[in-house]
Design a protein that fits this description.
The chain is built from 15 helices and twelve strands. It is of the alpha/beta class. A six-stranded parallel sheet has the order 3-2-1-4-5-6. A six-stranded parallel sheet has the order 9-8-7-10-11-12, with helices on both faces. Helix 8 packs across helix 11 and helix 9 runs parallel beside helix 10. The longest helix has 14 residues. The radius of gyration is 20 Å and the shape is globular.
């Protein structure tokens, strides 16, 4: 029996995209034990109740400090595991140090096309080169070849979210209270980490788009730091009563509400991946990031992209997002309302 420790990831979407690989491992080897370490409460909530994880742990490593973080890893994980799995994308020195400090004899992960040496990727001893043409889910499943596990590309598993009956009922209760035949979710924000707020479509465009769907109800999602954007949109549409904000809801209830939507419009964000995991038809607004890596997985989707020559330009490393041509993220501002409207119609969501 193998004992596996999964090193933590920061992003919700990145974490969700590891779940197909977990399903494959436990399906092939149900007796193997998988421990999954998380460093954010949101990722813990996403993975909670996942039957393919034997031991789900949370510890705020980022806030623990220079000495306490490594000490926690060493005290809790060292010598207990035969394998460490550092899933994609994890091109940061801290992830590779985590794997080393577990003392796992087999440290599995990727080697990267950018900043591979400086980010200590050589601390892993079983690596596969990242492939810029493959989705993050496929990159993760590729690592399983070191475990003797393969998967037909056409039979890749979906992403997993396991909500309780009560959580799903709360989502339906929210949806039913809107009394609308068509409900479309919107995530107009993104994380601000590493300049990722530059991946946002202009908030004024969301207003114009919503006004083209007078018969639909729009539900705006986001964190506290995104509430300003959502309030702006609600205040600047023709029919404010057709826009509802999801405020101060627990993440798992938020996921249940997303699952009741007829469609979802989103910048590149964790909520976009949650919508895809819930099988909601998803329109993704993409600029700097590579659509091959992060397009909505195993759900109906449409990619709204400007087609500008320098897009995509972002690669996975500690380096913050920057506009390489200094044209103020034209890859996002060149996405027109007409493009997005057309995409929603292709997803069967109508509008004027």
């Amino acid at each position: 029996m193998e004992k596996i420790i999964v090193t933590p990831l920061i992003g919700m979407g990145d974490t969700l995209m590891t779940t197909p690989a977990l399903r494959l491992i436990k399906t092939k080897h149900p007796d193997w034990r998988i421990t999954y370490s998380t460093i954010s409460t949101s990722n813990y909530e996403i993975l909670k109740s996942n039957p393919f994880i034997d031991d789900l742990q949370y510890y705020p490593l980022k806030a623990a400090g220079f000495f306490n973080g490594p000490l926690h890893i060493f005290n809790n994980f060292f010598g207990k595991y035969s394998i460490s799995l550092t899933f994609y994308p994890s091109n940061r020195a801290s992830y590779n140090l985590f794997a080393l400090l577990t003392g796992a004899p087999r440290r599995i992960g990727h080697s990267y096309l950018h900043r591979n040496i400086s980010q200590l990727s050589w601390l892993k001893n079983k690596t596969i080169r990242e492939d810029p043409k493959k989705h993050c889910v496929e990159q993760n499943v590729a690592l399983l070849s070191f475990l003797g596990i393969s998967c037909d590309p056409d039979k890749m598993p979906k992403m997993d979210i396991f909500l309780t009956k009560e959580e799903n009922e709360k989502g339906l209760e929210f949806r039913n209270a809107l009394r609308s035949k068509t409900v479309i979710g919107v995530h107009a924000g993104t994380s601000t980490f590493k300049n990722q707020d530059k991946r946002r479509w202009p908030k004024e465009r969301f207003c114009e788009l919503i006004d083209r769907f007078p018969g639909s109800h729009f539900v705006l999602f986001g964190t506290k730091e995104e509430e300003g954007v959502n309030r702006f949109i609600q205040s600047n549409v023709a029919k404010r009563e057709c826009v509802t904000l999801v405020v101060n809801k627990p993440l798992r209830e938020t996921m249940a509400i997303i699952g009741t939507c007829d469609g979802f419009i989103s910048n590149d964000s964790g909520l976009m991946h949650i919508a895809a995991a819930m099988k909601v038809p998803t329109l993704a607004l993409l600029g700097p990031t590579n659509p091959a890596f992060i397009h909505p997985w195993k759900a109906p989707y449409f990619l709204a992209r400007s087609g500008i020559e320098c897009s995509p330009c972002f690669f996975y490393s500690p380096k913050p997002l920057t506009c390489i041509r200094n044209i103020n993220y034209q890859c996002m501002t060149d996405i027109t309302v007409d493009m997005v409207h057309k995409g929603l119609k292709e997803l069967g969501l109508g509008g004027n």
